[in-house]
Amino acid sequence: MLATFLLLLLSSLSSPSPALAVPPRPPVRCGGGGGAGCVLSNAYGAWSSDRADCPVSAVAYPATEQEVVAAVARASAAGTRVKVVSGFAHTIPKLACPGGNGSSTLLISTARLAGVEVDAAARTVTADAGAPLRAVIDAAEARGLSLPAAPYWEGVSVAGLVATGSHGSSWWGRGGAVHDYVVALRLVVPAGEADGWARVLALKPGDDLFPAALVSLGLLGVVSKITLSLEPSFKRSITYEYRDDTTLQDDFAAHAARHEFADITWYPSQHTAVYRVDDRAPPDAEGDGVNDFIGFQSTSIAVSAGIRALESSLERARSVRGKCAMAAAEIAAKRLVGSGLKNDGGLLFTGYPVVGRQGNMQTSGSCARSPAADILSACPWDPRFRGLFFYESTAFFSPPARFRDFVADVKRLRDAAGAEKLCGVDAYNGLLVRFVKSSAAHLGQPEDSVVVDFNYYRASDPAAPRLGEDVWEEVEQLAFVKHGARPHWAKNRLVAFAGVRGKYPRWGKFAAAKRQLDPRGLFDSPWSDEVVSGKEVEKSDGCALDGRCVCSEDRHCSPGHGYYCRPGLVFTEARVCRYSVSQNQ
Question: Is the pLDDT reported for residue 110 higher than 90?
Answer without folding.
Answer: yes
